[in-house]
């Protein structure tokens, strides 16, 4: 199949020569076992997703390690982004990378000595690169486009890193970026913004408008965010540490501005203003995600840590901390304790014993997280308890949720009702509407095929409100 339509756009394209499935919007190939989650990122929902998966199942799709790479004299593979990169010119080497820094490090570690690294142009040449896959499966190959890449960046050995909008990585597993925000199916129209050059919607075309969001973050938003464990002066983490990093990393600044815009959307009651702030936040995020992925791939700890904090809001949950007395309401505690037995009565015996192990572990971790959250009325603790449970769930349990396993969906619903709503009530304004959206989606999936499981969720909601 040349292309496969997803709703009103040609999203997927099969390349029979290399036996890979290419996402036309993301411009890279998708592994077969990652197709469902990738379609979810593009907001392709159940009926349409099942149609696409059924169509793709008829194709021969190779695993990343089995895909034969084109030769260097081949034209670019259609649908895959072309990256400006470098090839090592040492005999029998042919090392490829899109990062000047990594090429210099490669030369030093593989071909160099204790001598000063010479000019880049003496051991590398500018080339055009592509990679079928991203993440841990990135593997660059050289192609020959109609126009050759410029060699201007090879003039001297000074350290000129690729810009925040470029891709980066290495053949040993770094991730080349190019991610698209799930809520935005097509890139917003670029508007000239001298300070940040972000893709902004109409009405936000000046530095002054952008500075208003930055000012709001430094004077208001940062004061509402959970402080972090392991930070020496927790009260200044968002206002000082994160801001300092953002001033040095353009992509991180986009994340800060997106958070400020989201905060303003929660503060206003005006529907039009709320919608405007949300749209602006989405456009800032569009430029934030690729930078975060790239920085994480390069292993730059401080900036990527701040970026992941903005993305996950306190991902380093303190797992060892246990309150002396749990304030969890008795009815909720009993509901969690009896949940495994009640689930057994409304679902069939699982084919895979690991389903039972993963579910029981998730429930036990949920009970511990609830004890921590309800132990004190503190926004920081409630957030860390909520986020901490997500960090503890096993990969097998994640797979159960992807395939809409009723047991996994009920456990996620309990986490939502008990921990997400509590964190939101204790001051995590950025969670407004999240619980309702999760429960609405879970209810829609269970109402069609498992009413008893849905009843367990409805029972907990009633107990919570009594």
TrEMBL record:
User: Which residue ranges does the record annotate as region Disordered?
Assistant: 149-175
What region holds the C2H2-type domain? 21-42, 86-111
Q: Name the residue ranges with Basic and acidic residues bias.
A: 157-170
Q: Name one Pfam family in it.
A: OrsD
MF (Gene Ontology): DNA-binding transcription factor activity, RNA polymerase II-specific
| SMART domains from the UniProt entry | ZnF_C2H2
From what superkingdom does this record's organism come?
Answer: Eukaryota
Cited PANTHER family: ORSELLINIC ACID_F9775 BIOSYNTHESIS CLUSTER PROTEIN D-RELATED, STEROL REGULATORY ELEMENT-BINDING PROTEIN ECM22
Its protein name is: C2H2-type domain-containing protein
> Lineage from the top down?
Eukaryota, Fungi, Dikarya, Ascomycota, Pezizomycotina
